[in-house]
Amino acid sequence: MAKIHGGQIIARSLRHEGVDTLFTLTGGHIVAILDGCVQEGIRVVDVRHEQAAIHAAEAYSRLTGKLGVAAVTAGPGVTDAVTGVATAWFSATPVLLLGGRHFVRQEQKGGLQEMDHPQLFRSITTWAATAWETDRLADYIATAARRAFAGRGAPVFLDVPMDVQFDMVEESTIAWPEGHRPTPPGVSADDVAAVAAMLARSERPVVFAGGGLRRQSQLRKFADLLQAPAFLNDNARGALPHGHRLLGNRRRSMAFAGADLVLALGVDWDFRTGYGQKINPEAHVVQVDADPTKVGWNRPAHTALTADPARFLAQLNEASDEFATTDPSPWTRSIMEAEAEAQARAEQEAASDASPVHPERFAKEVTSFLAGSIVSLDGGDIVSTTAKWLQPADQGDVLTAGAFGTLGTGAPYALAAQVVHPERRVSIVYGDGAFGFNGMEFDTFIRLGMPVIGVIGNDGAWNNIKTFHRAFYPDRLVATDLGIRPYHAMVEGLGGHGEFVDRPDQIRPALERAAESGKPALVNVHIAETMRASSNYAQ
Prior knowledge:
Layout: E1 3-5, H1 6-16, E2 21-25, H2 31-40, E3 43-46, H3 50-64, E4 68-72, H4 76-80, H5 82-90, E5 95-101, H6 118-121, E6 128-130, H7 137-148, E7 155-161, H8 162-166, E8 168-170, H9 189-201, E9 205-209, H10 219-226, E10 230-232, E11 247-248, H11 252-258, E12 261-265, E13 284-289, E14 303-306, H12 309-318, H13 330-350, H14 359-369, E15 374-378, H15 381-387, E16 398-399, H16 410-420, E17 426-431, H17 432-438, H18 441-448, E18 453-458, H19 463-472, H20 487-494, E19 497-501, H21 504-517, E20 521-526
Parallel strand pairs: 2-3, 2-4, 4-5, 5-7, 6-7, 9-10, 9-12, 10-11, 12-13, 13-14, 15-16, 15-17, 17-18, 18-20, 19-20
Antiparallel strand pairs: 1-8
């Protein structure tokens, strides 16, 4: 019978899981895994930093619903990926990080880059282990995938010693696991009926969806049936398309303060949502989450349901005769009118012709050009400003780092988006500080012929931190200024297209030239440094 090596077993097991792409930065400790991918027809996408590989794997999972996979070499390769795994942990994304490991026979002997990696990951994964036997590698991969998709989802880690990868085993002796994934949980018919009755009685309902709401959730159908204001946070952006008549963007706190019922779907009551304390204390909160530890976290859930929010919505839509209506209530109309007024005020700020460019004008100009694109956001203040102007048509059209606030995700997320959707325009909106983390991934775009367009809102400072620092130590600011650096010239030097602009009327033409170039491009926009009224640190 034919023999295959451990790397090929890993790759074939990944293919059985539906994986068609692996992200990596090469290294001697993983060459058998990479060879296995070549033999099994899995695309290998190589990057310039291991952090970028795991970030790209996370975005791949979010865009496809499949297991995202990255492979990195032992020692510093693995440690470089820790931040990416932590980001996926706080975003509850099913990701597998494969690490190389020294030979088993070198254990405790000081071999090259010898390290007991799993210990690093136990607080930021749902499972971290070492594969010690070649003939069990298929089972290890199946176990990793099963753990990764449990609950909301989570990253997992598996390192594989070099000899376990290289050893040959008889193909016929390998047990290839099948049907090892559970069906996402729903709720009982009684619970669905109870929530439907609450919605029918409510006079001021609000729908709020967060990162725990996965794609294909039927939220559009539900919103049209309920006719209530809906707000989206984190990875739920796009679950209602831009311009939907019930989609709120700027008046969430107002809606929370007046609501008598809040339906929270996969929501984290963390710093981004005021820890859930902005909700009317008399309101009834229905919280639905696949992760039971999220339910009741930081604020009470009066009706607490452990279930996949997408499946729950499908069940609720089946019971819509109880609450469906054809006309928005006076409550709904009042919230959407307030939304329109807030948008009109933002439009006034965005009309500024000042140079350097006002951040609101920057956001409006950039997002208008990027309508229809997949947009990866990477930064602090400029991201929060730009997010309010984005025009996503579907979930996955906006990619952000989520609760962990990681900088450097922009290019890796865009890389995954271009891999998954090569036919679509993919763009990155950066803060100038964030660009410094994984800006060299423009080399990856250039090598792979990916015409990703990046645009930097460049105020020459770590503005979010500078505002916070100034509030406490205004006379001793330190380590907060960067200067207006020519980041576009770096992309030009690598072989891409780059431009610098400092007037608002230059932004759109520069972006059009970037697109027409057909190259990876970076438009560097000098924006005004502004003080923020508050900081996440103080919430």
